[in-house]
Design goal:
mainly beta, seven-stranded mixed beta sheet, 13 strands
Length: 129
C-alpha cells in the first residue's frame, strides 16, 4: 500500500507543472486525497485536497486560481495542475490520505493519522529563473 508522486522539476516563474499521485495496493477513488508541501526550513503546509466523491475541493489561499486538483480513477491517480508558478511555490510536494478516514471539504483538509495515514515520498518543485 503506497502513494507515489511524480511530475516535479525545475520551472521558471510563470511556468506550469502537473504533479501526479498514483496509488498502489488500494483503490484511490475510495478516499479523499490531500496535497501538502514543505519548503526548506519551513513547516508543512496543506495545499489542496479532493473528496472521495469529487464533490469538494480545497485550495489554500496562496494557490487559489492557480492550482487545480483532479482525479482519474481509471488510472488510480490524483493530479495537481500548477500554473503561474511563483518562487514561493518551491517545496517538496507530498500526497496523502488516511485509510481510516480522511477529511477534505471546501474549507480545509486534515493531517492523516499516525496509524492509518499514507504519505508518498515527495516530489521536488523548484521555481527559479
Amino acid at each position: 500500500v503506497q502513494l507515489v508522486e511524480s511530475g516535479g522539476g525545475l520551472v521558471q516563474p510563470g511556468g506550469s507543472l502537473r504533479l501526479s499521485c498514483t496509488a498502489s495496493g488500494f483503490t484511490l477513488g475510495q478516499y479523499a486525497i490531500g496535497w501538502f508541501r514543505q519548503g526548506s526550513g519551513e513547516e508543512r503546509e496543506g495545499v489542496s485536497c479532493i473528496s472521495s466523491d469529487n464533490a469538494s475541493t480545497f485550495y489554500t489561499h496562496s494557490v487559489k486560481g492557480r492550482f487545480t486538483i483532479s482525479r482519474d480513477n481509471a488510472k488510480n491517480t490524483v493530479y495537481l495542475q500548477m500554473n503561474s508558478l511563483k518562487p514561493e511555490d518551491t517545496a517538496v510536494y507530498y500526497c496523502t490520505t488516511d485509510q481510516d478516514y480522511y477529511y477534505c471539504s471546501g474549507t480545509g483538509l486534515s493531517v492523516p493519522s499516525d496509524d492509518f495515514g499514507i504519505w508518498g515520498q515527495g516530489t521536488q518543485v523548484t521555481v527559479s529563473s
